[in-house]
Structures are given as structure tokens and as C-alpha cells.
């Protein structure tokens, strides 16, 4: 059974950095693109970044471009989201996703 598990969330101050990880199991990660989404309280889930199966095609939402970096290690079966220059507006539950498989999410809170 395909499974994704996020980790690395926490509470940080504006301007600080945080690295999220998404561990994959139950399927061959190297065959699939992976996306990160986030959902803030009272808002719809928002796509944040995506990386294709090879890692060569990467895209970001305008709101995080230049601040977030998505990467993958198919041997370790993980996809990471390095977040820098964090803002209060980045506060949300972050999810990784492939096709119809979602993780449980990890909370990121940016607050002074």
C-alpha cells in the first residue's frame, strides 16, 4: 500500500528556515512526480511545489519561488522541501502527494 509520511514541521520566527521531508513506502518513488501542498486554517489546499520523477523538472508557486527548494533522493525514497525566509503567511499544514496518495501532513507555524 502506497504511503507518504511528512516530518520536519515546527514553530519558527519570520526569516528563519525549516526543512520538511516526505518519506515514501509501498511504491516505487522513482516512477512518480511528487508535489507539496499546504493548507492554512480556513483556506483551501494550495499547491506549493512539484518535482518530476527524475528530479529535472521542478516548479514552484509564485508565493514561494526563490524561497523554497524541492528536491528528491530516489535511493533514500524521500522528497524534501527546504523553506527559507519564512513568513507568517507560510503558516499551514504541509502535505506531500503523488497521484491519489496523501500524507498526514506536518504543521509549520511562522510567528514572532
Write the layout of secondary structure elements.
Layout: E1 3-7, E2 10-12, E3 18-25, E4 34-39, E5 46-51, E6 58-60, E7 68-73, E8 78-83, E9 92-98, E10 101-102, E11 106-110
Parallel strand pairs: 2-11
Antiparallel strand pairs: 1-3, 3-8, 4-5, 4-9, 5-6, 7-8, 9-10, 9-11
Q: What do you see in this structure?
A:
By secondary structure, this protein is mainly beta. It is built from no helices and eleven strands. The strands form two sheets. Strands 2, 4, 5, 6, 9, 10 and 11 form a seven-stranded mixed beta sheet that branches. Strands 1-3-8-7 form a four-stranded antiparallel beta sheet, with no helix packed on it. Strand 4 and strand 5 (46-51) form a beta hairpin.
Radius of gyration: 13 Å
Work out the number of β strands: 11
Q: How many strands, what sense, and barrel or not for the largest sheet? A: 7 strands, mixed
Helix content: under 10%
